[in-house]
Model the fold of this input.
Amino acid sequence: MTGPDIRFVDLDTEHETHRRDIDTAIAAVIDSGAFILGPEVERFERNFATYCTTGHAVGVDSGFSALELLLLAHGIGAGDEVITSANTFHSTVRAIEATGATPVLVDAEPRYRNIDPEAIAAAVTPATRAVLPVHLYGHPADMAAIGSVAADHDLVVLEDACQAHGARCHGRRAGSLGDGAAFSFYPAKNLGALGDGGMAVTDHDTVDHRLRLLRNLGSEVKYHHEISGFNRRLDTIHAAVLDVKLGHLDDANRARRLVAERYRDALAGVPGLGLPAEADWAEAVYHLYVVETADRTALAEDLAAAGIPTGIHYPVPIHLQPAFAHLGHAAGAFPVAEALADTVLSLPMHPYLSEDQVARVAEVVSGSLTGRGALSASHG
Ligand SMILES: *Cc1c(COP(=O)(O)O)cnc(C)c1O
Done:
């Protein structure tokens, strides 16, 4: 089969499509001579807050910083515990530690692969201050259930929305579902910069003020420093480019959802294959399209032989990473997260994947799992 390459992500086409507007935005920043904060950052913050339906948005240099500063802005640090999912990307947990607080891991639920709300209640101690659910792969965590556990125990709820720009839970946008949220603009995220970037969003005026101080050396007025802060600002040039891309985010997410629907139609009923479920209260934005199979290695090899790239998100659960050995969890501690690490495979997913390309991926997947992998690949 000929035709354009099937890519895992496709930033080239996105940038070609919007190249003129991106170039104009970059040129305007260069011409302005203002590269740190300023009106471009303020405009993007306003537009992103409006998009998320939150009162405030504070641009920072990464998703990691957004998580860390959001926790600090809530006064969370040494001696506090923050509950999060064992099935997430490294940064969620590492950002909690960076504040001095202790991450408390709980297992995921197998259906949507997000934090298990029932496990949260069981992990609460007198030191618990916050819960940090992750909308993994772009599917929102069960924020209604999490909110009710949090209310019972007087916990702050902060979203790791780094994979969920534009997702909805009960009709409301990711970012507006708790006390605050962290977004990443890492290039391959649903909204990506030409480098690193991030955003913390909140409805609380005091949290907004603290975030602005924390990202800028504790300073609001130049050379006057109210609190201990950091240099974690969002670069102006990134804000200008992100503001262009924000205008196309809903279209891109709609395209991702169409790809997911086509995968679902084409792959339903393939033996030994688990497909991502979408809750009736959720509108997922498919940062990744993650299937599950016991034959992951064979499936990835058959796809590679057919020229189709795949990924594993993530191969080792948080508690079994050497970097988190000090948390003291042995294998078997979080069976759902461990089973997922052994069985998940991410198929190509981006807004420009054509109907034919999805059909081709599905053909190879289905051939592999029904024992015709070698044949299908050799004809690829
Ligand atoms: C990408 C990501 C982060 C970190 O974002 P960076 O911008 O790379 O620092 C945190 N949490 C999750 C779930 C992510 O996917």
The longest strand covers residues 56-60. The chain has 14 helices and 14 strands. Residues 62-64, 88-89, 91-92, 134, 160, 162-163, 184, 186, 196, 198 surround pyridoxal-5'-phosphate (CB under 6 Å).
